[in-house]
Amino acid sequence: MHDLASRLRRLPASCGPVRLIGVDGHAGSGKSTFAGRLARALDDAPVLHLDDIASHDELFGWTGRLLAQVIEPLGRGETAHYAPYDWHTRRFGPPRALPPAPVILLEGVGAGRRALRPHLAHLLWMELPHEESWTRGRSRDGEEQREFWEGWVRAEHEHFTEDPSRPFADLLVRQCEKGYETIPGPAGTVGPDQNVTHGDGPSAMC
After folding, report:
1. Residue 20, SS3 per DSSP
2. How far is CA 115 from CA 26, 108, 146, 194, in A?
3. Which end of the chain, N or C, is less packed with Cβ atoms under 10 Å?
């Protein structure tokens, strides 16, 4: 993890003075846990969770809000202010400040969407099949979220069909028995004359 953190620190800034690192993957793939550990290795780098940007009404239609509230201010070297969504009360809360930092992690399903990739210094993809990820997510959230998950799975499938992230990942990340393993992602292994398969199937790792 510390080797990865050192590598990310050396990247050129991508959003104003910030190295914005996307952590994408299917719901339940372990993005939040991984991002938290990576943030600690980056001397407690800020983590922006896309769960705070999305809402029940806009599971994936939040691009404009993220650009206006976060990406554009950071790109100017200013402190961003975004209103985190409360999934229990179904309301956006008071604004939260996000000052520019050397590295900021953007974690959540859709962090590697095409509208955000120009602002990312690096894109990491959690390498876990969608069915396994969704099973883990359902188990985590319990029976009370069963109906939500039914809608979510359809929405996520539609999103990644239209706007896949994995083919553009710089690194693939998989949790192993001891920590995490990373290998070069499709973005770093596919040459200009090769075809990119726009899918999210995992490769063999660990």
Report:
1. strand
2. 18, 14, 30, 23
3. C
**Among residues 115, 105, 124, which one has the least CA distance to residue 50?**
105
The per-residue pLDDT for range 141-180, each reduced to its tens digit, is 667 677 777 878 899 999 999 999 999 999 999 988 888 9
In angstroms, the first-to-last Cα distance of the chain is: 15
- Name the phi and psi angles at 175, rounded to 5: -80, 130
**Residue 204 lies inside a defined structural domain of this protein:** no
Question: CA 91 to CA 166: how far, in whole Å?
Answer: 31
Domain-located, residue 197: no
Domain residues for 173?
2-189
Tokens 């705070």 locate to 52
Looking at residue 198, its pLDDT comes to 39
What count of Cα atoms within 13 Å lies in the side-chain half-sphere of residue 196?
Answer: 17
Q: Does residue 99 sit within a domain?
A: yes
**8 A C-beta contact, residue 25 and residue 125:** yes
Q: How many domains does the chain have?
A: 1
Q: What is the pTM of this model?
A: 0.88
CA distances from 92 to 8, 69, 88, 89, 141 (A): 32, 13, 11, 9, 21
The CATH number that applies at residue 17 is 3.40.50.300
- With bands split at pLDDT 50, 70 and 90, how would you rate the model's confidence at 132? confident
